[in-house]
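User: Hey, quick favor. My workstation is busy. Could you predict this chain's structure for me?
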Amino acid sequence: MTRYTLAASCIALALTANVNATTIDEELAALKTRIEQLEAQQKKEAEKPQEVEIVEVEVVNEVVEKKENGVKFGGAVRVNYSYEDFNDDNADRGGDFDFDLFRIDVSGSYGDLIYSAQYRWFEYMNVIQHAWIGYNFTEEQQGKIGVTQVPFGILTYASNNYFFSSNFYLGLEDDYDMGLNYTYKGDKNRFDLAFYKNDEQGGLDGYVSDRTDRYAYDVVGIRLDGEDAYAAPSDGYAAGELNTFNARYTHNFTFNNVDLELGASLQAGQLEIENGTDGDNVAAAIHGVVNYDRWNVKLQMTDYKYDVDGMDVDRVVVAAYHFYDSIPAEATTYIANLAYSLPVNIGPISNLTFYNDYSLVTDKPAAMEDTFMNVTGMAVTAGGLYTYFDFVVAENQPFIGGTMVGSLQRQSLKYQHHSTVSYSA
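Assistant: No problem, here it is.
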């Protein structure tokens, strides 16, 4: 029995071993088949066109505007030769050749903060021409505080010559006062708005040694009847400009090759008078500037008036260039200028500008004679050397042997030939 049992066990083990062998062979065959399938699939994929994914990387160069900071210094030395037909002593000497001024300029920026100043030394006085600090709010908008140019009429100058126009001597061209100034400049238009607390010397009670030492003309008094035109204001009648508002608008047009600027200006303010009397002033102007090729035309009409409470005022006292003078309390002025710019190559000379500037002051009170000034001249540019050659014919015109208030009797014509040499560093 024992042997039989062992034999049966052996047979059972043999049968089990045979079954296991059959299972392994099947698994190997399946694995071989799977490998063949994978190799066939890989071969098929390799025969397909390869698709390459291209990733585009866009490189953006950001341009950052760099604002230049720094300080710029400049200046000028100016001398002039003048022959005055109306001045017998000058004519007998064959004219005078004098030192006129030495000037220093400084300007600069720090980011959007900007500043500029100019100081002038004359033979007879030292003065600030301008001194301000400003800020560029945007590319179009700018603000300034300090002694700035009054935005009135044609800017920067309503003239081409050394003597300016008659408006300069009325305080209505290239005037500078102490206050706030806002400017908007668009592509086609410009708007200026300003408030001036007083003139550049601090007004009536400014701490200055001489109220006549100033670059631009300002009202400094009321002229009483019978007073000399060049006298200082009488006691109690000194005055100062106060709380003056200015507004100016210009628009630019282009017609083919012609550029046209049309503008209007308004000024209104008070007069502070030493005796406590109140006064005020108002001025208005319209102007046009035409540029065609090398030609330039400037036209302007201005009307102004000074009033004093309880007084019938015909004349007011102005001051500049170390002396007092008088102007009509009201008047209408006209400016008509023509200029031609000619580029040349004559040694150091690069440009010649020929011009004729005409000014008329009329409609004065008390039957005062009109003022007129005509300047025919040429400006020569040679590097940093700028030279005026001016021939002036005028009547009742300051600096040409007359005064704006003139005489109630007609004066003879005043002639002056004037040449000025200016060198700018």
